[in-house]
């Protein structure tokens, strides 16, 4: 079934659409089979969050936009799930914030790296990093550690959607500012992030882009103020509260 064959009137339209994108991603060799399991976990949390962007997540998305805009070298890390779910949204955000796109996989194979890079180019990306893999993130085993020297290795700010906990921790240890999108507020990755974004990547990416557009003319002082006023723990607590009590 293609995207267009899901009836828009269906009460769980967005969720069905998302499933089909992931399924197609697996069929095309973009998403790993484990990506299906990650998707299932994400769906459960999204259901508990009411499949909406919480006010606390919207604030975190604005802060993420401010970080990307003031960064020396921002990079958007791309895995097999986000590539299948939101390729155009990723490319748009990279364009608005002048960020690099780098394919960086948990279950790394050269074939999947190239398939994803090609998929992004088909959706309009000019340059996609991740194929050189000439540097390593310290503290991780061989395949998961591979990054481009002029990409994630050099970046000061990295947006990592759906990252595994170990790598999120290792990137933070390298001193990088991590912006992590993850629907599970209890997961280790958002907990090691400077900016945890507890939202679905499908909603989060276009919203970060909208905030970035809004902040394009903001002064350096204004961006600093947005970043400095942010409290990551309060965001995580707000998301957990929303899940437990069904309240913002
Ligand atoms: O393509 P690869 O090889 O890099 O692999 C990517 C996955 C996601 C399979 C890999 O990183 C993995 O196994 O991740 P985990 O440990 O299952 O964690 C995935 C996290 O993402 C979970 O906390 C989910 O709740 C969350 N998640 C799943 N779908 C979404 C999501 N968060 C935001 N938006 C989603 N659509």
What keywords describe this structure?
248 residues; alpha/beta; Rossmann fold; five-stranded parallel sheet; two-stranded antiparallel sheet; 12 helices; 7 strands; 10% strand; globular; binds ligand PTJ
What would your notes on this structure say?
The model has no long low-confidence stretch (mean pLDDT 94). Helix 3 crosses helix 11. By secondary structure, this protein is of the alpha/beta class. The chain is globular. Helices cover 53% and strands 10% of the residues. Strand 5 (157-161), helix 8 (165-173) and strand 6 form a beta-alpha-beta unit. It starts with 12 loop residues before the first helix and ends with a helix. It has one domain: Rossmann fold. The structure holds ligand PTJ.
Explain briefly what this protein structure is.
With 248 residues, this protein is of the alpha/beta class. The chain has twelve helices and seven strands. The protein has a single domain (55-245), classed as Rossmann fold.
Q: Which runs of at least 5 residues are low in confidence (pLDDT < 50)?
A: none
**CATH topology category name:** Rossmann fold
The radius of gyration over CA amounts to 17 Å
Small molecules held by this entry:
ligand PTJ
The CATH superfamily is known as: Phosphopantoate/pantothenate synthetase
Instruction: Write the element-wise H/E pattern from the N-terminal end onward.
Output: HHHEHHEHEHEEHEHEHHH
Count of β-strands = 7
Strand content: 5-15%
Q: Percent range for helical residues?
A: 40-55%
Instruction: State the separation between the terminal residues, measured CA to CA.
Output: 35 Å
Q: CATH top level?
A: Alpha Beta
Q: How many domains would you count in the coordinates?
A: 1
CATH architecture assignment: 3-Layer(aba) Sandwich
Largest sheet, in brief, is: 5 strands, parallel
Tell me the number of helical segments per DSSP (H or I, 4 or more residues long): 12
Largest sheet: spatial strand order: 2-1-5-6-7
Overall pLDDT = 94
* Secondary-structure-derived class: alpha/beta
Shape: globular
